[in-house]
Amino acid sequence: MLHCDWKGSKVNILDVPGYADFIGDAKTAVWASDIALTLVNATSGVEIGTDKAFGFASEFNRATVFLINHVDREFADCDGAFSAIQEHFGSEAIPFQIPVNAGEGFNQIIDVLQMKLITYTDGKAEASDIPEEWQDQAENLREQVVEGAAESDDDLIERYFEEGELTDEEIAQGLKIGMVNRTLFPIFVSAASKNIGVDLLLDFLSIFAPGPLDLPIPTAFKEGSEEEVALAVNDDGPLAAVVFKTISESVGDLSFLRVYSGSITSGEDVFNPNRRTNERIGQIYSMSGGKRVDMDVVGAGDIGALIKLKDTHTGNTLCNRNARLQIQPIEFPHPLIRVAVTARSRGDEDKISAGLHSIHEEDPSFVAGYDAELRQIIAQGQGELHLTVVFDKLKSKFGVEVEVVEPRIPYRETIQSRSEAQYRHRKQSGGRGQYGEAYLRLAPKQRGDGFEFLDEVVGGSIPGKYIPAVEKGVVEAMQRGVLAGYPIVDTQVTVYDGSFHQVDSSDMAFKLAGSFAFQNAFIDAKPILLEPIYKVSVVVPDSYMGDVMADLNGRRGRIQGMDPEGNVQVIHAEVPLADLYKYSTSLRSMTQGTGDYTMAFSHYEPVPHDVTQKVIEASEHDRELVEA
């Protein structure tokens, strides 16, 4: 988080990584901003991260400005970058500048808004007339800019057609409207490390670009209802502020927030409707990297940082206690990698759980929790680097180290045919005995239909009061699994006969009879394992498509189709979860970091026989270890 004063305008800057592992930070930053300044490397052009940043800006209806940086590099290809941006994001993307001498030694830019040549010496700019050999290209480009401004508004386009030109004020008006409506995406150039082009960019942002008063603000709702409340960017309005980033420090959490309406003042009490708790506002800072500058108040449209809020986390709203409003938090990207973690030191399990929960509150794109079915702590993130950062933080902040292991797969068991079995539970060891007998019939159901229990006992062979105990025994056996210890699904179970004893029968006896009868019948019903199948969409450049498809086939994946999107291909496939472990790392390695993907659960389907045997053997091994 940075800020500066540029010619009377305060400019807040949120600098976020373009790397896919930290895409959650990029999404929240775009959400909290007015303008998505999207950087494109002059040597590599449009990349996967460029597309994601543009998508976030589109999702939140934010203005987008492209900046081609590193124009001073040896192999800088600005023409290629311009073309790639326009090919990928449409003709609405228009260059506002011409890099005169791109490559090593770059120091001249033609600015078509000023129609001047800007020459930089040691970072200082000097304007002069455009050389004659560049005049035609500059005029053509200026015409595109003016047309883009005119097309943003019906009155302006009519005036442009009538007069063939717009005034400077009309151009400024059209540029702002076009960026607000996302019908215009200006492209600038720079060599930022040498301070070349940065001043022109800041001039444009402060004069022409839309600010908080121009752009739509998120919808607020009255607490606990769906009644919308119209907000205005006004310090005197009801407070509506959102914490978009939390950084945990030794002295307490540092909470970055955007104030959409009202103002927030040091020393006042506010309300957090997400956590239903009051907060006392302590110190407020304006941040520039690690440097903090005290602020007394954060007004509407501004950004600030609060320290030591007791129970406020990323995505939470802060409002007045007597005007309770809530802004819907954003939906974070779904995790792409899952691992299991174990404590390196015995007894640290509670510390691990508490630490991972705290880190999730800071960074909701990271998810963790104990999976009772798998008997593992499962940690999920956007990639291996993301998880590495999380585990480093767990060690430095909470003092616990973890071992990372491959997570178990949530298999399911089911049957393919009908079967019948009975079990008589009889036990006599002095005093009152135990007796219960149940006859069960099993039948397979359609995938996804779940469990059904039927009572077809006639003649009172099992008294009605014991039928629920039989069902309970069946349900418990299904939860434990029979084949490999995984839950059993999509099965119809019918109890149709049995016997009882007037004295020795009990709920416990019939529960055991139902459990063992079910296990016996299950073995005879051609049992199989089911595995989770995920829908995977892989985005890759054309040159890597063959390698990626071959890799998916090697993971037992089935290619469902392909769609072209700009200069990349989207490969749709269905892949078993068991074969997606650390796929994000493999894909990035295979595609030199240019590949990306999303995944979502689709359905369960039978596991191949050879894989089934391996799963059963592994399950038996795990069971032996637990018993030992």
UniProtKB/TrEMBL annotation:
Organism of origin: Geodia barretti (Barrett's horny sponge)
The protein's name in its UniProt record: Elongation factor G
UniProt GO molecular function: GTP binding; GTPase activity; translation elongation factor activity
Keyword Protein biosynthesis attributed: yes
Entry superkingdom: Eukaryota
SMART domains: EFG_C (SM00838), EFG_IV (SM00889)
Lineage: Eukaryota, Metazoa, Porifera, Demospongiae, Heteroscleromorpha
Record keyword Nucleotide-binding present: yes
InterPro entries named among the record's database cross-references: EF-G-like_DII, EFG_II, EFG_III, EFG_III/V, EFG_IV, EFG_V, EFG_V-like, P-loop_NTPase
NCBIfam families the UniProt entry points to: PRK12740.1-5
Any Gene Ontology biological process: ribosome disassembly
Domain Translation elongation factor EFG/EF2: 408-526
